Structures are given as C-alpha cells and as structure tokens.
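REQUEST
  id: r-88c1
  op: predict_structure
  target: NAD(P)-dependent oxidoreductase
  payload:
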Amino acid sequence: MAKLVVFGATGYAGGRIGAEARRRGHEVVGVARNVDGISGDFTARAGSLHDAAFVAEVAKGADVLVVATPARPDAEGKKLLDAVGSLAKAAADQGARLAFVGGAGSLHVAEGGPRLIDTPEFPDEYKPEAGNHADVLTALRALPSDVDWFYVSPAAEFGAWAAGERTGKFRLGGDVLLSDENGASKIGGDDYAIAFVDEIERPAHSRQRFTVAY
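RESPONSE
  id: r-88c1
  status: 200
  body:
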C-alpha cells in the first residue's frame, strides 16, 4: 500500500481522493491550513504548501504527493504555481510522485483546436482560476525528467454543485475535452477520485496530463 500526502484534503476533490485512497487501504496524511474539516481515518497536518520546510517535512516517507488546492492566489497573494518548485524538490528527494488535480480550461475542444479557456463561450469569471491551472501544467511539463508527475483535468462540469453519484464508469482521454453524445462534459466527484487513485495504483500517465469524463 502507498502513503499519500494530500494537500487540500478538506476540499471537494482532495477530500474524495483521500477517502477513496483510504477505502483501498492506503495511508493518507491530509494537509490543510485548517484541519477541522478533515474527517475519517486520516492523519491530519495543519500547514501550507507555500512553506517549503513544512512541505519537505510532511513529505518524508511519502509515495505520492497529491495537490488538490485552488490555483488562484491565496490571501497572501501566493499562487499554486509558486509552490511547484518546492513540491517538485520534495518529491524528488523522497522518490515520490506528484499528482495534481487540474482544471478543464486548458483542454482543447477538439484535436488541433483551441483550448476551452480560449473559446468565446468560456465564462470570464472562471478565466483567472483556469489560467492559473494552465500555468501549473506548463510548469510541470518543464520539470526535470527525474520528477514524475501526473495532472488530471476533470470534465467541464465538475464541482460540489454537480457531485453526481458514484458509478465507477467513465472514460479517460488526453488533452482533448471529452463530451457525451449530447455535448455534455461532466464527471462526478467520486468517479473522478476513482480515476485519480487508479492512476496512483496502476501508473499509466507518467509526466502526462489526462482527463476523465462520462
């Protein structure tokens, strides 16, 4: 079994990934600035991924560092992008894998087509967060080859407001947005977590981004 450190363990995606990993018998350390929201059989650690010393300490013995935090600036103006360097160093030092909960905005709407974020239909209010997630993906792709990582973009419709039901049935893709026969692009939180932990248990996307949708 693997040891996972989940940054953002109180969030929508991080909480479900941690719960799915625990369900399968993995050890989970849940990290958040405020750990009061961490429930279940987790080891809780209060701290910030922007604290390089804390990241290095909490990563000791980890097999996977899961990053499930917002990409936008926090209260101190620090973006997720700013933490990629220290996360990568901690992963390399421990021989651990980096696993990022990404965004859908950087997915292409069709092979060779524009990114979702660059289409006229993409809501302006979501562009800062989507753009910051895209910057994180770019930074991961530029990391040295000794840092293993994967980045999972959800479908366009993903969040607590559309949690859906656990089905265990979904499709995986690459850099192109997946939609169903009606043009809808959706994935529930539990099924996203299943796909995420599947990749941890059976690595198939080393240093790659992939996407999951119904």
